[in-house]
């Protein structure tokens, strides 16, 4: 059974949640807002930190001028290390740890996708050499982005991408919430990936299908970024000197630094963190609670889109205690209807706020993944890991969905955690629990099977 502290906090949590949901239901007709909101004033948020002081740098981007849709990028410091340096670190003669600044300065910078910083302009104008080697885009501890160095065989270190969708019952949470920030940092470090946390629009200001459409928009935006980055490389690839003389394997033309794609206002539309370090052909979708519903929807759209999303390829998805319901109650829905934190009554109120007025149904395609004639066929879905909690009233519905996937030969294991409650690995008060840490580690082990390069699937 959950601890006494968890039980007491659950009572307090449900009291506040019920009060907030009822207030929003009473005023929901006045809350229509096409632009929308992605976080609540009462939400505890964590500011973006572009430095690597804690091993992970973060950046917030507003990617849709017509809505409030935004993302937070989590970049691990390992992305700055060349393949050969990352896998085979050299021993230092004095046996002392190398300072981070010295370690980063030792990495060869090949070229930047954007204008050089002031320090680089000064070195070039003062005759300090025009070689692009040593181009440093770390200023005041903040990371700007650069093209990763090539290895001995010309390969570049590219990290897989995880699109993460937070929970919150459609009406709360955010990509910049303190709890989501901690969880995404944990996944970033354990999986050694770039995490893109999606700040989708919340209900009741934006009802179905707004949150689902936002998830698809981010996937399409990622594909557009990959293609723009490739165009930017082609435009800025001119170098003089060939492979002959000169230092650093050729000189860098100042004009090439400005050959990047810009919008009508002259701002670069290529996100340097993703252009430099992301491998969109190894994309994983991860959703918690209602975010798992969004992840499953985005996975279906990715299957339907096929090569239209190239070079993005969804190789797997992780559904953490998905917000699946249905009109015919399951055994867990009967036995655990008054479970901890998110009980059946609270979730029903959330669905009433999310689904369009007059269309409320527990068998809505957004709520029940096993309604008949839902496209595409399950056999085309990517490998799916499902995480469930013993004391979650929605657990049986998630397990049933996983069983249907396995019937059509989709790799769809279920990880069930004893004495766990809904959102046990992502809720703020439970993030430091041993179960939350173990769950993140288990997810990392499974995900690495699908994001590891060929021949290295079991090298972790």
Automatic annotation (TrEMBL):
Residues 162-425 form the Alpha/beta hydrolase fold-3 domain. It holds the Pfam family Abhydrolase_3. Gene3D superfamilies: alpha/beta hydrolase. Residues 82-109 are annotated as: Disordered. InterPro entries: AB_hydrolase_3 (IPR013094), AB_hydrolase_fold (IPR029058), Carboxylest/Gibb_receptor (IPR050466). One of its GO terms (molecular function) is hydrolase activity. Residues 93-108 have a biased composition (Basic and acidic residues). Belongs to the 'GDXG' lipolytic enzyme family. This is Alpha/beta hydrolase fold-3 domain-containing protein. It comes from Phaseolus coccineus (Scarlet runner bean).
